[in-house]
Structure formats: structure tokens, C-alpha cells
Design a protein that fits this description.
By secondary structure, this protein is mostly helical. It has helices spanning 2-17, 23-42, 47-72, and strands at 107-108, 114-116, 124-126, 135-137, 144-146. The N and C termini lie far apart (95 Å). Helix 1 runs parallel beside helix 3 (47-72).
């Protein structure tokens, strides 16, 4: 009877420590407390050993429940009052693109996707994939120009 009382006390203590855990952590914690307490009772431990084993098993079970939630991506905040979610991180703002009106326009050619640079030595430049009005760079001079219509 003495072992039964110790086992009941250990399980009660283990259950009280799991109040602020999530349901998954409580489930694994309770299972760990039962296994720890029963294991100590079967191995012939005294009432102190049974209580300790139940508390250690409960803590280990709750820790495994938290690990399992984290691995499954199901972690939820514990029920300990109000939970404030972290503020979302704002998306980076792209650097402003200089206005096209500040740059000279290239000259169109008869070949689609090829323009003549407005900068000396007036090379032909491929602008395939770019749209009229966008900015491009002459690879020879590294100067910027606007793609014509």
C-alpha cells in the first residue's frame, strides 16, 4: 500500500507540472510519468524513488512531446496567458531605379533585339528580353541608355 501511495503522489506531482504544456506534451509527459513510476515500483524502489522516477519520466515525456511537435512543425505556444505572435519581418524594399528620362535613348536597328548605343563608339548592343523604356548598359562604355520603342 505504501508503494501505491507513493506512485499516486508521484503521478499527481508529475501531472501538476504539466499544466502549462500543450496537449501533445501533456500526453507524452503523463505517459512518461506512468512509465517512470511503475518502473521504479516494479524494481522495488521505496516511495522516494517512485516519486522521483515519476517526475523524471514526466519531464522526459513532456520534453519528447515538445521535440516531436517541433519536428512535425506543429509547435504551439503553451497555455500560459496571452500569447503575442512575433511581428512579421517586412520584405526588403528594392533600391529606386533612376528615371529613364535622365538617360539618352538608343537607336533602333532593323534587327529585333539589337540597338545602336547612343554613346561613342556607337556599338550595336543586344537588348533581347528587355522592353522599350527600360534601362540598359553599353558593355563597352558601361554607360546607361534607354531602350527605344
Amino acid at each position: 500500500m505504501k508503494t501505491y501511495n507513493a506512485l499516486a503522489a508521484g503521478l499527481t506531482a508529475g501531472a501538476l507540472t504539466l499544466v502549462s504544456c500543450t496537449p501533445t506534451q501533456q500526453k507524452y509527459g503523463a505517459g512518461g510519468a506512468v512509465v517512470g513510476g511503475v518502473g521504479a515500483a516494479i524494481l522495488g524502489g521505496d516511495s522516494t524513488d517512485v516519486g522521483r522516477a515519476a517526475a523524471i519520466g514526466g519531464a522526459g515525456g513532456a520534453a519528447y512531446g515538445a521535440y516531436k511537435e517541433n519536428q512535425d512543425g506543429q509547435a504551439t505556444p503553451p497555455n500560459i496567458g496571452s500569447y503575442i505572435a512575433p511581428a512579421p519581418v517586412p520584405a526588403p524594399v528594392p533600391a529606386p531605379v533612376p528615371a529613364p528620362k535622365n538617360y539618352p535613348a538608343a537607336h533602333p536597328t532593323e534587327t529585333p533585339g539589337i540597338v545602336i548605343s547612343p554613346h561613342k563608339p556607337y556599338n550595336k548592343v543586344s537588348v533581347k528580353g528587355l522592353k522599350p523604356g527600360q534601362l540598359a548598359t553599353d558593355p563597352t562604355t558601361n554607360k546607361i541608355f534607354v531602350i527605344p520603342n
